[in-house]
Design a protein that fits this description.
Shape: globular
Largest sheet: 8 strands, parallel, barrel
Oligomer: single chain
Number of helices: 10
Length: 310
């Protein structure tokens, strides 16, 4: 089985953009036989430094996923009402316009490789709740989803990546809509583009402060008939490097890791991964001083861990 890997979290550009290091890194990624595609971060353009260079780094055999979450979080810092689920119409429209730029990058990738190389595009139920004057709703999210589903994604599915839902008891990492509300919005939206849910292990665990929350969310999405993806991204307690219940993409094998083989195996069993559109992992390579070869070995170690499950 080949995996989708959020390799940007292990990038050597953690210390600042370096095209030579990145070129070497992507050469190593292309040589990994288990890598079936990338989870590509989207911040407003295909690549924040050099889109032409980036296209040349991708294997023509990969089928990748675009995730706009880095761009979503950056924009929320400037416009707290921004989000596909925002009840503020200007903020909602701003988010829809941002997704239109994502669509342009899907078309760019497909033109370059002369085939549909984007299997899925993630969407998110921002804004972050809990701030004065900021609110969201299933109705607003469903309206946005219907708009997005009417566009030509050239074969790519849309996947709502569930992030930790806002709650009053502790500060959120993302603070978006509850999964049940996202599922309701999916089910009431309309359009030709297939739409489902992607569960990110770490973000679900952070929401419940429980290693069992991802399994609950997987079962919930599966029962509703909308489960389409699973990405393993860990979190820790008592880790100086990866924090305390932090959305820091901790790897499988690290001090304080909550993402154990047992819990990952339970998730794979629930998800029935052969039926998923997206399956893989996103792990951050620390410390930042790691070299390119060390980072590639880091990814390979996590690949080997995941292979034990499938």
């Amino acid at each position: 089985m080949k995996f989708c890997v959020g390799a940007y979290a292990a990038s050597p550009s953690a210390n600042g953009w370096n095209e030579a290091l990145e070129t070497s890194y992507y050469k190593g990624l292309r040589a990994m036989p288990e890598l079936g595609g990338l989870e590509i971060p989207f911040l407003g353009s295909l690549h924040p430094h050099n889109s032409g260079w980036f296209l040349d780094q991708l294997s023509p055999d990969w089928n990748s996923v675009l995730t706009p979450i880095p761009g979503v979080m950056n924009t929320l810092n400037q416009d707290p009402s921004f989000g596909l689920a925002s009840t503020d119409e200007a903020g909602r429209s701003h988010a829809v316009d941002f997704m239109a730029k994502t669509l342009e990058s899907v078309h760019l990738l497909n033109r370059h490789f002369k085939r549909s190389v984007v299997s899925a595009v993630e969407v998110h139920s921002a804004p972050t709740l809990g701030k004065p004057g900021i609110s969201s709703s299933t109705e607003a999210f469903a309206k946005s989803l219907s708009q997005l589903r009417s566009w030509d994604w050239q074969g790519a599915h849309l996947l709502v990546e569930h992030c930790d839902a806002f709650q009053l008891t502790r500060p959120p990492a993302k603070g978006f809509l509850p999964l049940a509300w996202e599922i309701e919005a999916i089910q009431t939206s309309k359009g030709k583009t297939p739409l489902g849910v992607l569960i990110n292990w770490g973000r679900s665990a952070i929401e419940g402060h429980s290693v069992f929350e991802p399994e609950i969310h997987l079962a919930q999405a599966k029962s509703a008939g909308v489960l389409s993806g699973l990405i393993f991204s860990g979190c820790t307690v008592g880790s100086e490097s990866y924090g305390e219940w932090s959305d820091s993409h901790a790897p499988f094998k690290t001090s304080g890791s909550l993402l154990t083989l047992e819990r990952a195996s339970a998730c794979v069993k629930i998800a029935e991964i052969s039926a998923l559109k997206v399956f893989g992992f996103k792990m951050q390579a620390l410390p930042k001083s790691l070299g390119v070869e060390e980072r590639l070995r880091f990814l390979q170690d996590n690949v080997e861990f995941l292979r034990r499950l499938v």
